[in-house]
Write a structure and sequence with these properties.
Blueprint lengths: L5 E5 L32 H11 L4 E5 H7 L5 H7 L4 E5 L6 H14 L5 E4 L1 H5 L1 H7 L5 E3 L5 H13 L9 E4 L5 E3 L16 H10 L3 H4 L11 E4 L1 E2 L12 H8 L5 E2 L2 H14 L4 E4 L7 H13 L6 E5 L5 H10 L3 E8 L3 H7 L5 H13 L5 E7 L6 H18 L5 E7 L9 H4 L6 E3 L4 H7 L11 E3 L4 H21 L5 H25 L4 H18 L7 H5 L6
Helix pairs in contact: 1-7, 11-12, 12-13, 16-19, 19-20, 20-21
């Protein structure tokens, strides 16, 4: 077994989640991972491939998944045995702030002379704070494309040289002085950074660690895969850390970077070679241009990509575009996120279109053979009240009445949780948009993730809904929507009743936690929380929908 040069570690959102009593709430109910966010970023695969092609051995260890799947697994013992030239830890989503930093501390404890490198959008945003305040992190690689800077950094590490000339890094030298190198590597093309799942398979076999390389817990049952068409955006949704504003301000990206259609389809063909699983195209292809999107579908048709394909829409699509998809993709599904049924709320958020356009898209999609269409609504938006959120549930019922007879339309409603994205328009200027932020500094976020309830994770409230109202309304609308879905046979009555019971129990547990937090004696407070641990574990999952409903994409043929 060859020794890895670089070990990429993926931490759980909360490192000691197996010991703590934590009520996560619905923070991951409408995404594939569990509340510990056991899915590592897609960039791990491109980093693995890029460095391996340049002569380095790379191993992925999904620490979060190993901890989740095996209660006896000791991550510290594994880390102690590893001996690479460097460790890389993703801190891409802000929800990992506690887990990633704690994992970095443990790595440095056992490998004091081995560089610990963080990367991802959240670590980019907080790069100075991280390197200045957490001595166990030696370096942050900034930006949305870290493959080439990481390769250069590995070459400097291998030669024992200081990385003064490596772009995009913030680092600490041997005299504890902090350096911030220019964020100058911002590629216009992604063609050199393809995602080849074959490299993941080979690495898993090489290190005899299949579990450590799996993307997430649900992947064994529902191995949905993904390809990323582009980086950057043309939209400015006000809470999004991947908006045009955020990319320009925090990641130095002023224009889109994307794969040539042939390269993107090449990734799909590699997936098809290994798996019959659905392929999710991340991002709306049309943001690069309608001609680009149509070219992608032309190449897919020519190359006979016949895995089920999930296509994301940022805006409604015309009939001609859906016809193009239908002619090129034998089995396609769609996702769209209008955020609210209320057009005023939607426009204030950054999605300027009407319900008539949305409904025409749904109608045309099903007429042209769409196998499934997921529609996502959110809570915590500007001008949105509790009444407005409950009206969104009623709008979902109307959509199902009009378009849901074949059980292909699946509506979801979830809060913007646990955090508004760093770098987003609202994060930078909350007051001007009717928001109040409770945390700003990275240490405040790390501390927030130690609280026992998701209510205290939330980093915001709005002029229209307090933090308490956001939490209460989440359970109110979950109750309503589950009843509606039962009516239209999207979930069976037993599943619906189980969810309703969990919602009722969750409300009780939240009130108990609120009272426990008021206890001034730390030991007594901890004891009372531990008494709740088993109760929370039974109810604190799948409140907004079941994972089976969320991940049940049409199968191969």
């Amino acid at each position: 077994m060859p020794k890895p040069d670089l070990v990429l570690l993926h931490a759980p959102s909360i490192y000691d989640f197996r010991k703590k009593a934590i009520m996560y709430g619905p923070i991951s109910d409408v995404v594939p991972p569990t509340p510990i966010f056991d899915m590592y970023p897609i960039g791990f695969i491109s980093i693995l491939r890029y460095l391996e092609q340049h002569g380095y051995n790379v191993r992925i260890v999904n620490v979060a998944l190993k901890m989740l799947m095996d209660q006896r697994f000791d991550p510290e013992n594994l880390i102690k045995k590893l001996d690479p030239k460097a460790f890389g830890i993703d801190f891409h989503w802000l929800v990992h702030v506690q887990g990633s930093l704690d994992l970095a501390r443990i790595v440095k404890k056992h490998h004091p002379n081995t560089p610990v490198i963080l990367g991802g959008l959240s670590s980019t945003y907080f790069h100075t704070q991280i390197v200045e305040n957490y001595p166990y992190v030696d370096c942050v690689i900034r930006g949305d494309s870290t493959e080439q800077p990481l390769l250069q950094l590995m070459q400097y590490i291998e030669k024992g040289r200081s990385p003064e000339n490596v772009p995009n890094i913030t680092w600490r030298d041997s005299d504890e002085k902090i350096h911030t190198n220019p964020l100058s590597f911002v590629p216009e093309s992604l063609d050199d950074f393809t995602i080849d799942c074959g490299y993941m398979v080979k690495s898993a076999l090489r290190y005899r660690d299949v579990l450590g390389h799996l993307p997430c817990e649900e992947w064994n049952r529902y191995p949905i895969t993904s390809v990323l068409a582009c980086k950057g955006c043309i939209f400015n949704c006000i809470t999004c850390g991947g908006s045009k504003y955020a990319y320009q301000r925090s990641y130095n990206r002023s224009s889109l970077a994307y794969f040539r259609p042939e390269k993107l389809v090449e990734e799909m063909k590699i997936i098809q070679r290994y798996l019959d699983a659905p392929i999710f195209i991340l991002g709306d292809l049309r943001i690069v241009g309608k001609k680009y999107a149509e070219s992608v579908f032309d190449v897919m048709r020519r190359e006979k990509v016949d895995n089920p394909i999930v296509i994301e829409l940022f805006m409604p699509a015309g009939k001609d575009y859906i016809e193009k998809i239908a002619k090129s993709v034998p089995n396609f599904s769609l996702e769209i996120s209008p955020e609210s049924h209320d057009e005023i709320v939607r426009r204030a958020f950054g999605r300027p279109y009407g319900n008539d356009e949305l409904e025409k898209t749904i109608s045309n999609a099903f007429k042209l053979g769409c196998q499934r269409l997921d529609i996502f609504f959110m809570m915590g938006l500007p001008y949105q009240t509790t009444e407005s959120v409950l009206d969104t549930a009623e709008y979902c019922q109307n959509l199902l009445e009009n378009f849901g007879k074949d059980k292909k339309l699946h509506p979801f409603i979830a809060p913007l949780a646990p955090f508004l994205d760093p770098g987003s328009i609202v994060f930078e200027d909350p007051k001007n948009h009717g928001y109040k932020l409770f945390f700003k500094e990275v240490e405040e976020y790390r501390q927030a993730m130690t609280y026992p309830s998701w209510k205290y994770f939330l980093n915001y409230q709005t002029s229209w809904m307090t933090r308490d109202e956001l939490v209460e309304t989440t359970y109110d609308v979950a109750y309503l929507l589950n009843r509606i879905k039962t009516q239209f046979d999207l979930i069976d009555s037993n599943t619906s009743e189980e969810i309703i019971i969990r919602i009722q129990s969750a409300r009780v547990a939240l009130k108990e936690i609120d009272e426990i937090i008021k206890i001034s004696n730390p030991r007594l407070r901890a004891e009372r929380l531990q008494q709740l641990k088993s109760q929370i574990g039974e109810i604190d999952q799948k409140l907004l929908c079941s994972k089976d409903e969320l991940l049940r994409w049409p199968t191969y043929h």
